[in-house]
Amino acid sequence: MKTETVERLNNSLTDSDVLAKLSKLPLKARGIVEGTFSGIHKSPNKGSSVEFSQYRKYVHGDDISTLDWKVLARTDRYYVKEFEADTNMRCHVVIDCSKSMAFPNEKDGKLSQAIKMAFTIAQIAVLQGDAVGLQCFSEKIIQDIPARNNPGHIKNIREILLAMKAEGKTDIVTVLHNMAEKIRRRAMIILFSDLFTEDVDRLLDCFQHMKHRKHDLAVFHLIAKEELDFEFDRPVRFKDLEMQSVLLAEPAQIKQFYLSELDKYLKKIRTACAEFNVDYRFADTSI
What we know:
Layout: H1 3-10, H2 16-22, E1 41-57, H3 69-75, E2 79-87, E3 90-96, H4 110-127, E4 131-137, E5 141-148, H5 153-162, H6 172-182, E6 188-193, H7 200-212, E7 216-223, H8 225-229, E8 236-239, E9 246-249, H9 251-275, E10 279-284
Parallel strand pairs: 3-4, 3-6, 6-7, 7-10
Antiparallel strand pairs: 1-2, 4-5, 8-9
Helix pairs in contact: 4-5, 6-7
């Protein structure tokens, strides 16, 4: 797809200048991925790229051009060189569209920011020849677009993102466990979410599951400024956007406890991401 074609699809989702700058940077998996076509990412299969992998003993039928004649001269044994094959990548963009992602408002809240970042990454991936899929979820996956890299695919993703609304409760734990099993080939999975769940340990189990399945997981953790600062100067009626429960509280009395618990929560997330080799990116939606 040509850059000018992508720019016509941007509209309100991506700044064309930002895309032009970012498209010069490769979106690369940190580990090995499995694809169908040649590309820029490491493959588990052996090929004929320029990066040496290992020696192995010659067997009947091997291409004699891969024989290492210097090793033969030294050891009088036949060895061939193997190289790492490069492949294209399957990139799955996963967006939490539960009701909590509407905070603090629909226009420029967490979901709005997630959509813009997700679409930019999807365009970069398609431009470099990778296949991109889109999964949007709340209690379950409500949009499931398979990974493809044909030119019309990015337009389909754009239309779905433009129509997306923050609705319903979240069940991020079940969704991520299911995705880890459903995506059979090793892939890059990019998650956009506020990561709010009743049991953080169960969420971290999902990250470990992704690592076990050899997926390359990246997390964009979106938090609103109001959630970070808790700058409220008078009694406030707090409403749970997903459960609809209401709590009337005096912010000054609970602020220090709230900020302490938030700090513990964020540290636990970051520590687990480092342990399970998850690429973690904290995103303050006010910036």
